[in-house]
Amino acid sequence: MDNSNSAMIVYVATSLTGLVGAITGLASVWFAYLNYSRDNVRVRVKALKGMKTFVPGQGASNESFLVITAANAGRRPVIINKAAFVSLKSRGGAISADSMRLGAQELKEGKAIDYMMDEEGIDYSDVSHVAVYDSVGNEYKYYLTSWYIRFFYWFLDITYIRRKPVKAPKAPTKKHSG
């Protein structure tokens, strides 16, 4: 074996070793990221409109409900405090009485909880999204309105078109005796 041939073999061997090391390093970083992302809290929220309760032998009730479902899709348990819907046009919203009555509920991996709200008085054209809130204050949303409608009302808010002017309180008048 001459010197140039052995140098070529060493060069190819070190290049292949470096390439295998780089691929192995990238794969381990990718698997570490996947493991990290799986360990985070992930809550999935769904909403069902127009649901009725059904009792066998009696049939369906006349009342219809908005059912908000919160499911833990992550590995870590999460504590859900309340469920609500948020208004689009008129600011504010409403909190589910079920979530207030039941209190904080711990959702373990793969578990879900349902909250029911009576639909009487709910104007769905004014509902932006339903949301559940955890004990840390995170909000998990499910949008009921299209993105372009939400964008329109957001634009109205940032351009102050929809904002009402704040009036200063009237100062009390002093009566002079004289």
The general outline is elongated
Mean pLDDT across the residues is 86
Using only C-alpha atoms, the radius of gyration works out to 29 Å
Low-confidence stretches: none
Classified by CATH, the class of the largest domain is: Mainly Beta
> What percent of residues adopt helix (DSSP H or I)?
25-40%
The assigned structural class equals alpha+beta
Give your account of this protein's structure:
- By secondary structure, the chain is α+β, with helices and mostly antiparallel strands.
- The chain folds into two domains: 1-38; 43-158, Immunoglobulin-like (Sandwich).
- Helix content is 30%, strand content 32%.
- Strands 5, 6, 7, 9 and 10 form a five-stranded antiparallel β-sheet that branches. A three-stranded antiparallel β-sheet has the order 1-4-8. A two-stranded antiparallel ribbon has the order 2-3.
- A hairpin with a 4-residue loop joins strand 9 and strand 10 (139-143).
- Keywords: Membrane, Transmembrane, Transmembrane helix.
- The chain crosses the membrane at residues 6-34.
Produce a short descriptive summary.
The chain crosses the membrane at residues 6-34. By secondary structure, the protein is an alpha+beta fold.
Q: Secondary-structure blueprint of this entry?
A:
Blueprint: H1 3-38, E1 43-51, E2 54-55, E3 59-60, E4 65-72, E5 78-87, E6 93-95, H2 97-102, E7 105-107, E8 112-118, E9 127-134, E10 139-143, H3 147-158
Antiparallel strand pairs: 1-4, 2-3, 4-8, 5-6, 5-7, 5-9, 9-10
